[in-house]
Structures are given as structure tokens and as C-alpha cells.
Amino acid sequence: MAEQHGKALVPQIRFAGFTDPWEQRKLGELTEIKDSARIPNRLWREAGVPYIRASDISQEDLRGALFIDEEDYAAYKAATGAPEKGDVLFNGGGEIGKAIINGNSSPIYVQGGAVLYARIAHSSLLDARYLVAAFVTQNVVNAIGVLSAGGTMKHFTLQPAKNLPIEVPSIAEQRRIGAFFDRLDSLITLHQRKYDKLCVLKKSMLDKMFPKGGSLYPEIRFAGFT
Q1: E strand or H helix at 52
Q2: I want to staple 82 with a disulfide (CB 3.0 to 4.6 A). Which of 5, 77, 127, 144 is the partner?
Q3: Lowest pLDDT segment from 56-60, 109-113, 149-153
């Protein structure tokens, strides 16, 4: 994202009006990084407060497939805390480093050891959308790889997450960058949905515009052809 010139970090391109060099900081210096408890299977429910696992983050779906009772949520939240609206959740297991913003004020709890979160809601030094974009830059991906422990199944745990080096500009420039990439992600999602619909249409037309079952007549055809 930024190249180092001497001690200063300067990106190759940037929005007009920003000239100050970036700096490299540890993620834990910019915002509080939190882990949670692992909730035993016997407390899992089919409804209640979403219990977010690494697979949910990878699918970018915080509605949850598993849940816990509100009473259990209150007890675990009192012991470890819980994500708030605006915090950034990211995987410590599975698809390590995959990040998503918690955009809902409804309560959620995350699986300890599998999902960590950055308390962006309480940070004046880090923008949530900027952090999500930074997590996919090569510098951060490489750093996560170095800091992750384990063999075949690697884990990115709390202390390494706090020590994760990240390049940051001013909060104003972070917000511009974060908004830009958030908009790009929205456009990509929109076009992906259009692509998926066109693929379904193509399959349907292939089935109906070519004869099948020994017939010499397709189910539908262009006007004027008999």
C-alpha cells in the first residue's frame, strides 16, 4: 500500500489534499483487539443471539447459523466483552485475516480462538472500512502469515494480532480510502449478482432452445422459424 522512503511511508497514488507521510504502527496501538470465550456445544441453540464462527466471517454473513440464549450471552459478555456496531471482526482460524464490519447494533458473540475483533467503535485512530481494506493488502497478508502459528492448520491469535504491523495515514485519509474501496466492493457485489442471474438465464435458454428427448423441435425459438 505504501513504499518506504527513508523512514517515511508514501503511497504511489493518493487522494488530492493529502501529503503527510504514513507511519507503520502495531494494530494493538491503534485500537483494542479482543478475543472471546469458546461456548460449549451444549449451549448452542437454534435461535437467540448469533454465535459467529470463522465460517460466518468467510461468508460475510453475521446473521449466524448457531445461537446462544440471551442469558448466556449476557454472562459471557460480562466476562469477556462482545462486539459492538462498527467493530471489525476478523478470522484467527479458517480463512485467516478475512475481515468484516459489524454493521448491526443487535447483539452478537464470537467464537473464541476462531474470531477476533478490533474495537473500532471506540478508536479515534483507525477507520473500520480502511482496516478491512488493509487486511487484503500484500503487506498485511504477509505479516499475518509470519505471525500465525501452527503447521498445516495455522492460527492467528490475540497477541500476534496486537503486534500486527499496519501502515496508516491520518484518520481523514483513512476514511477517504476506506470509502473508496467500500464503494468498489459494492460495485463488485452488484455485478456478481448480475453475472449469477445471467448464468441462470443462459442455462435455462440452453435447455429450452435446443431440442431434447429425441424431438426435432426446441421448446422455444426466435420468431419466424418453424
Answers
A1: strand 49-52
A2: 77
A3: 149-153
Q: What is the residue-wise DSSP string for 61-105?
A: -TT-SSEE-HHHHHHHHHHH----TT-EEEESSSSTT-EEE----
User: What pTM was computed for the model?
Assistant: 0.86
Q: Phi first, then psi: what are they for 83, rounded to 5°?
A: -60, 150
| Cell numbers for 201 | 438465464
For residue range 47-79, list pLDDT tens digits in order.
Answer: 999 999 999 999 999 998 999 999 999 999 999
Tens of pLDDT, residue by residue over 200-224, are 999 999 999 999 888 999 999 999 9
Residue linked to cell 457485489:
189
Domains of the chain plus CATH, in order, are 3-169 (3.90.220.20)
- Answer yes or no: are the C-beta atoms of 11 and 3 closer than 8 Å: yes
Rounded Cα distance, 176 and 181, in Å = 9
Q: What is the pLDDT of residues 166-190, one digit of tens each?
A: 999 999 999 999 999 999 999 999 9
User: Which of these, 51, 21, 35, lies nearest to 91 by C-alpha position?
Assistant: 35
Structure confidence by residue, pLDDT tens digits, 75-107? 999 999 999 999 999 999 999 999 999 999 999
Separation of alpha carbons 113 and 92, rounded Å: 6
Question: How far is it, in rounded angstroms, from Cα 13 to Cα 149?
Answer: 34
Are 81 and 34 a contacting pair, CB within 8 Å? yes
Pairing of strands 99-101, 109-110: unpaired
Strand 99-101 and strand 88-91: the pairing is antiparallel
